[in-house]
Amino acid sequence: MPVMRLLSMFFTNGKTLKRAMHHLNKSGHIQLSPKIYKESIQFHKSVVISGSKVGETIIEGLLTIPKSVSVKFCNVTISPITHIYVEGEVEFEQCHLDGMDTSVLVTVNGGKITASHCEITDAADRAITLQKQSTGVFHHCKFQNNGKAHIEVDGSEATIEECQFSEARYAYWIKNNGLVHSVKAHLHHQLDAQIYVDHSTFIDQGSLIERGEDHGIYAKKESNITLENTTLRYHKKPQLLVQRSSLVGSHCIVQHGTDVGVSLRDYAEMNFSYSEVSQHENANIQVAKRSRLNLEHCHIYSGKSFGIQVNDKSIVNFYETLLKSHKLAQVFLSGESICSVKNSLVKEGKHVGIYIEKKANCTIVESKITEQSNSALSVIGGQLTVIDSEIMYNFGNAILGMSNSTIEVDGSKMYNNDMAHIALKANVKMNLLNSELYNGKSLILDTRCNVKGVNCKFYESENVQIEITEKSTLTLEQCRIFNGKSYGVKVLKNSNFFFYDGQISHHILTQIVVNDSSAVVRDSELYKGCRNAISVQNHSEVLVQDSFISKHVQSQIWLDLESTIELKGVQLTDGFHSDLYAQNQSEIYVTDSMIRNDKVLYNVRAVNFSKIELSKTIVDNRLGDTFYSENNSFITSSDL
Question: Residue 431 CB: number of other CB atoms within 10 A?
Fold first, then answer.
């Protein structure tokens, strides 16, 4: 039998661990017997200590490992009354550290700990504490039922691979510029935040963090979090809470939370890509108190509240992101917050698609918003910009604007919405450019709204294409309004309509109705209507200049109830009824114009105290007489 083996047997079976250390051979290895070693030791030499393979080897007492000393324990149980203090290096392999009566099992003070395939359980306070620039490396370990924290990293670093953590207040407690890098860990059933990061850094790859009583990850005080392929689920408070810190995540899943999925507060920043956030009782994502959120290639869906809730001057950006199936607004913006949406899809919401209020600002570019149970976009006291986007198949409006909002739409399409594509009320200002609104009522302005449209198309409406009411103003330039199954434009209740260089055609009812309001039509064409081209009534005033009006089934221009119209440089041709008709104290003034009709006699008519004055105007009727007046009305024509 070799001498080394004889010495090993002598020291372990008959003597103490301390004496075995004193007679340590050159191999630096001690093989312990299956028994309990009750003693406190300060190691002065590097050593490997192995427990018995046939029975349990237990060590009890205070073990101190000073600087420049390395101690490795293999297959050893560290008893409940043992505390290990490390300034050098310690390694545990296939060990059980049981700390039922110990506040802290292992304290590493400027040293290093390595543990693999170990069980570390039942510490009264903390299982492992790393402090003063210590290092910890943990592989395939199981931490269970430790009091305040499984691992405390205080100004130190830890690497954790494929470990399991359960039943403590915190799994990782990282503070004072600490750093933890974990890979494929499994954390569950902690009482507080499973990972608590305080002015520190946490990096994770592929871990599962689930079923905690509080947060999954809580980061605060300028911490930095990096997540890749991380899953958080089934937590009772916000699963990912970032406060005055930053987070970068990719290919992550956050789902099935009792509260919020992701919460950013107090100047927090988060960049999330290729990730999913879904199925939370509260908002899937909350962004508040001047925080920032960037989402790229993400799916946010199936929440029982808001999809993304943004408040307090925060900023959010979405790129190629899907939001769908939320019971409240898919995006809620308030408190001067800013949102930009690009190349994204917002669909199948149970309420509003994007809701903007209280001076918040939203810009939507090259995106689609569809199938909301309410309006696609609602803005109340906020700002909205929509560029090169499509808004369609919503049960409410495409855009609902109210209460001093400002809206700009450019290069977009709105169609097949159940309510008016654009509905504005109460001092809303809007620019509508290069857009198409069709298959639905296009535009309604109510109560002091002001809209300017340029190079737009409004067509194929089942109802009135455009309605302007209650002191509102609409200006359209180079626009076309056509193929409506009702009126083209209705101007009501002291409102104003300006139509320049455009076309209005093919409406089942009157193309333009002006009631108790005013309108200006210049350099435009009105043709092929099933009723009137322009109906002016109830104290209204209209100017038509340098325009062409033709082929209407009823009177091309019809006035009633003390209304006035002035025609300058206008051509009226090919009408199927009279060209001018004034009744009930109404007045028509025509200059430098041409009126031709070969389908009906008396194409200029005035009745019931009305008058028509023509100057430098040609009136031609191939069938015969052109003028007809009755009941104190008159028609005058001055020579060319």
Answer: 16
CB 329 within 8 A of CB 357: no
Six-digit token string for 31: 């093989």
Residue 12 predicted with pLDDT over 60: no
| Rounded distance between C-alpha atoms, residue 524 and residue 547, angstroms | 5
Cα–Cα distance measured from residue 7 to residue 24, given in angstroms and rounded to the nearest whole number: 9
Task: Give the residue among 129, 198, 121, 196 at the shortest CA–CA distance from 164.
Answer: 121
- 362-385: b (≥16 Cβ within 10 Å) or e: bbbbbbbbbbbebbbbbbbbbbbb
Contact 582, 588 (CB under 8 A): yes
Q: What are phi and psi of 93, to 5 degrees?
A: -130, 120
Q: For residue range 26-39, what is the model confidence (pLDDT) as tens digits?
A: 778 999 999 999 98
Give the 3-state secondary structure of residue 489. strand
Burial class of residue 156 in the structure, from the number of CB atoms within 10 Å of its CB (0-12 exposed, 13-18 middle, 19+ buried): buried
CA distance 84 to 378: 63
Q: pLDDT at residue 600 above 70?
A: yes
199 contacts 174 by C-beta, under 8 angstroms: no
Assess contact for 198 and 176: CB atoms under 8 A. yes
Please tell me the pTM assigned to this model: 0.92
Using a 10 angstrom Cβ sphere, with 0-12 exposed, 13-18 middle and 19 or more buried, the burial of residue 98 is: buried
Highest mean pLDDT out of 9-13, 39-43, 276-280: 276-280
Q: Are 271 and 249 in contact (CB under 8 A)?
A: yes
Q: Where are the domains of the chain?
A: 1-168, 329-482, 510-639
Q: In Å, how far are 50, 209, 556 from 235, measured between CA atoms?
A: 41, 9, 69
Q: Could you tell me the two tokens for 403?
A: 């209460």
CA angle 46, 108, 38 (to 5 degrees): 60
The token pair at 435 is 């857009």
Instruction: Name the CATH architecture for the domain at 329-482.
Output: 3 Solenoid (2.160)
Burial annotation 460-484 (CB, 10 A radius, 16+ → b, else e): bbeebbbbbbebbbbbbbebbbbbb
Domain covering 1-168, topology: Pectate Lyase C-like (2.160.20)
The DSSP code for 31 is E
Residue type present at position 198:
D
The string of DSSP letters for 211-237 reads --SS-SEEEESS-EEEEES-EEE--SS
**Residue 85, pLDDT above cutoff 70:** yes
Decide if 212 contacts 189 (C-beta within 8 A): yes
| CA within 13 Å, CB half, 224 | 7
Residue found by looking up tokens 């669909």 in the block: 347
Could you tell me if 56 and 32 are in contact, meaning their C-beta atoms sit under 8 angstroms apart? no
Q: Do domains 1-168 and 329-482 have the same CATH topology?
A: yes
